[in-house]
Specification:
Chain lengths: 232, 421
């Protein structure tokens, strides 16, 4: 596949990345040798049928998993050679996750959920609270800081999740079907939010199977059978 | 930083536990009972040993006490009328002990007499003890008035008498009795002092309640001899007893048991029949310690089993909690939490649980001994270190039984955990 050259440099570089699972006696190639570059500041949507390898791709990009073979560099850091602790560190400093099912922690308030990455970064309580309030304001939930996730609508929950993903000021935001559980109007809100973030300079990689959502991204990557099918 | 984080973790733990109040409380029960019984056990044990120590201290841990005992066969033949029974500790015994044992510091003889006493026209049957001045050194009693017997009393050939508080009360004597004349039997004595009576301690020296007065033993021997006659309905009982009690003080604590064994062997050889009893307060102390140890082992096992069951209960709930919160663990890991941070979080949560259980248990453990003291009239002592130990135990239970669930939580694959329903 062609290497994408961007004027700003590469946030993520994949070279011949394979991920193989053993299912019983059979080897399943979830990723069958992907070479790809995501440039800094780009907004990508990864599309494909289920089983095309897009989720595996996102897990790898998110440093939740390591490739079976091949080379993955995140801001020039060779992810394949890192241990669990260093991978956690990378996630903490470079990445922000947005999930389909929001994944807020139910017993924590909105503020505490947003503060979570700051807690692991070792921020003190005062600065964390300030930052959380700021972020909640940014996603339009400044008045819901004391609420629990269960007291919020789906769209609001996803906005809290976005605020949480932003708390550590990540370089890359990884979104896994961020609108999958939302209706169309709240979906539009979330997509607006992501677009704003991209305009502010965040690199975004989003997995989706809805083409109208994917259309909001600057670039689209289609996958099939663990390989890149085409890019637009 | 670490402290602040731990505090946050503790708050988070409390919050999670508060979500399932009933479940958390039930989970704590095992630790509550375990810790409660540890505190209660230690309090009862401590109280018992304190009491035993108190008793033994009043007897003197350096002392060996020998009593004269009327042999059983003598009592049975008493109905045949006037017959003299000769038994008990002899003056020879006292001499032999003094000569044979280098470890003996002093020997205090006690001779008990019953004589009629007269004070200012008031007559009473008095129980009089003939002893030496050393009795007052060995068995210290606060002086209420006047003085106790001194060494010179033995040689001066005077006739001093020291009343006990109890005896003085029986004679209706006040402290102005000092210097007055007290007639005992056919002889006249001068009251020189009054000593305080102490509550008789079971198994101790001749209890104070049974004694009205002390006189020098030489005087007692000279004036009243060693034969006593007691008249009982129709028959009379005649006894010859040299000494009723000997208190042997040993110089070093380590020599007490050796000396006691020697004295026992000596008495066995020279007496041939059990007309004496040897008591060693130190041996009583050892016995009390052994009893306490047994008691502690029994209660300790109960507490141990309770703690084990409690710990397993906690582990069970924590494993369930880990399963329940798999998604949360996945999220935390995705955000960047390291394995050891997840371990720490769950471990602290377990420790909060067991610590709370321990706190409630200490509350129980403190109130149970109070109840025991009230109902069974047993002394109990709650020591600071038993509380300290209990806190340690409950936190250790948290660590031991929380570690496995916590490690299991930390080792979850974040991808799998995130997908968990």
């Amino acid at each position: 596949m062609t290497l994408q050259a961007t004027n700003k440099g590469a946030a993520i570089e994949l070279r011949e990345v394979r991920k193989t699972y053993i299912m019983g006696s059979q080897e399943v190639h979830a990723l069958a040798g992907v070479t790809m570059t995501f440039g800094i500041g780009e907004y990508w949507a990864i599309m494909g049928a289920s089983g095309s390898g897009k989720s595996t791709m996102l897990n790898l990009l998110g440093c939740l998993d390591r490739p079976t073979s091949g080379n993955y560099r995140l801001y020039r850091e060779d992810v394949g050679s890192l241990d669990d602790n260093r991978l956690s560190d990378l996630r903490l400093r470079y990445l922000g996750f947005v999930f389909q099912s929001f994944n807020l922690i139910p017993q924590l308030t909105v503020r505490e959920n947003i503060e979570l990455p700051l807690f692991y970064l070792g921020w003190d309580a005062l600065h964390s609270a300030e930052r959380a309030a700021e972020l909640a304001e940014q996603v339009g939930l400044g008045d819901r800081l004391g609420h629990r996730p269960a007291e919020l609508s789906g769209g609001q929950q996803q906005r809290v999740a976005v605020a949480r993903a932003l708390a550590n000021d990540p370089k890359i935001i990884l979104a896994d079907e961020p609108t999958g559980n939302l209706d169309s109007s709240t979906s539009a809100q979330i997509m607006d939010l992501l677009q704003t973030l991209n305009e502010q300079g965040k690199t975004i990689v989003m997995v989706t199977h809805e083409s109208d959502i994917a259309a909001r991204a600057g670039r689209r990557l289609h996958m099939r059978d663990g390989l890149i099918d085409r890019m637009e | 930083m670490i402290v602040a984080r731990t505090i946050l973790n503790i708050r988070l733990g409390l919050k999670t536990l508060m979500l399932h109040k009933l479940r958390s409380m039930l989970t704590m029960l095992g630790v509550v009972f375990g810790v409660g019984s540890v505190v209660a056990m230690l309090a009862v044990g401590e109280g018992a040993s304190m009491q035993a120590l108190e008793q033994i201290r009043s007897l003197g841990s350096h002392n060996i006490i020998i009593d004269s005992i009327k042999p059983i066969d003598d009592e049975q033949s008493g109905d045949s009328g006037a017959r003299m029974s000769v038994y008990g500790i002899t003056y020879n015994d006292q001499m032999r002990i003094a000569e044979s044992f280098g470890d003996v510091r002093r020997i205090v003889p006690v001779k008990v007499l019953r004589q009629e006493g007269r004070l200012a026209g008031r007559a009473l049957d008095l129980r009089v003890v003939g002893t030496t001045h050393e009795w007052f050194e060995l068995v210290q009693r606060p002086l209420l008035a006047g003085r106790v017997l001194v060494g010179e009393d033995l040689h001066r050939g005077g006739n001093p008498v020291v009343l006990t508080e109890f005896g003085a009360r029986r004679l209706l004597a006040a402290s102005n009795v000092i210097g007055q004349s007290l007639r005992i039997g056919a002889y006249v004595y001068e009251v020189v002092g009054i000593v305080e009576s102490e509550e008789g301690v079971a198994g101790g020296q001749t209890p104070d309640q049974q004694i009205d007065a002390y006189i020098p033993i030489q005087v007692a021997r000279q004036r009243y001899g060693d034969i006593s006659v007691r008249r009982q309905a129709g028959s009379q009982e005649i006894e010859q007893v040299d000494l009723h009690q000997l208190i042997v003080e040993v110089d070093e604590l380590e020599h007490v048991e050796r000396t006691a064994a020697g004295i026992a062997a000596m008495f066995e050889r020279f007496h041939g029949r059990p007309d004496y009893a040897i008591r060693v307060p130190l041996a009583l102390l050892r016995q009390a310690e052994a009893t306490k140890r047994t008691f502690n082992i029994v209660l300790g096992s109960i507490a141990g089993i309770s703690l084990l069951v409690g710990g397993i209960g906690i582990m069970n709930i924590m494993l369930a909690s880990v399963t329940e919160r798999t998604r949360e663990i996945g999220v935390r890991r995705a955000i960047g939490a390291k394995r050891r941070q997840i371990t720490g979080q769950f471990l602290i949560e377990t420790m909060v649980l067991s610590g709370l259980g321990g706190a409630v248990g200490i509350g129980f453990g403190v109130s149970i001994p109070a109840l025991i003291t009230m109902i069974a009239d047993m002394p109990t002592v709650i020591t600071g270190w038993s509380i300290f130990l209990s806190v340690g135990i409950s936190l250790s239970v948290g660590i031991v039984f929380g570690l496995y669930p916590a490690v299991r939580a930390a080792n979850l694959d974040p991808i799998v955990a995130l997908r968990h329903e």
